[in-house]
Every structure is written in C-alpha cells, then in structure tokens.
Amino acid sequence: MKTYVALLRGINVSGQKKIKMADLTEALEKLGLFSVTTYIQSGNVIFQSEQNDVQFLSNLISKGIQQRFGFDVPVLVITLETLAAIYQKNPFLDRLNKEEIETKKMYFTLLSTPPDEELVKELRSGFNGEEEFVITKNVVYLYVAAGYGKTKLNNNFFEKKLKSVATTRNLKTVIKLLDLSGLNL
C-alpha cells in the first residue's frame, strides 16, 4: 500500500464546484481508496492505494468526481515521496529558514506534465518583475513579495505559458499535507 496526495484544482472557490469534504471522502472510498484524509476545503487529499500508477489514480478520481458531483475537476496525484522531494528541493528554503523572506508568500505551482524547455526559456527571458520563480520538471517554486492576490504569476498564468495543467498550494498547505501523512522531514 502506497501513500499519495491528490490535489484537486478549482473546487470550493468563489462558490463554484462545491464539494463537502465528507462527501469527497466517501466518494473516494467508494472508488477503492483507503485511509482518505482531506485538508481544508480547497481539495487536498491524502490517501492510500495498492495502485502504482499516478495517472491512473488521477483519472480515477477525476471520473469519480464527474460521476458523483457532475462537474470536471483536474486532479493531480503525486506520491508522498514526490511531495517531500518538492518541499526539500525548494530553492528558497534556505532563505525561508533564515527568515530573509516570508513563509506566507511562498507558493508551489505543481505541473501535470514537464514543461517544454523552450517555453521555460521564453518565460524567463520575458520576465523582470519583483516576484521570483524557479521552474523544474514538476513544479514552479514561486515567491511573491507583494502577495499571491496581487501577482500576475498565478496558476492560470503558468498553465497558459507552460502549456501544462497546474494547481497551486502555499507553503503552509504543503507542510500540513506532509505532517498529516505522518512523514517526518
């Protein structure tokens, strides 16, 4: 049995695609997932499965939500180890630990597919704002000095520029998901 994290994009935002977490938990358990735990209303789920294919699990959850709740929700499933590696490889981690930058302004935009290198180069060359970002094959590490609500570098921006379905979580959520999973960093 392996532990996974499912990140649902766009549920319970501005009154759209409403799903109660108890209903989501029940729906996922009916799909054959085990030890389902949700965190806050924005679609963060920890679960266990005997299945080893994250794409299969993403599709399973997405189709299950479509059937149960009647709307499409992009779902990104990653292993717990992948989430831990994303946290540990954060290029801003040293500055965060030294309190040189604020933790509440650190975000992770997780990508469903690796971005094309040409698109990454184009994005880097055309950017000169005060926000900072580092793009890897599965995540955009984003530090927004003015706050996420004021940046143009949001989830939709990176999806459009990198041509990859994405979902964004703040540092607090990533840490909480790791804590809830029982993984000690």
UniProtKB/TrEMBL annotation:
Gene3D superfamilies: SP0830-like domains. SUPFAM superfamilies: SP0830-like. It comes from the Bacteria. Pfam families: DUF1697. InterPro entries: DUF1697. This is DUF1697 domain-containing protein. It comes from Aquimarina aggregata.
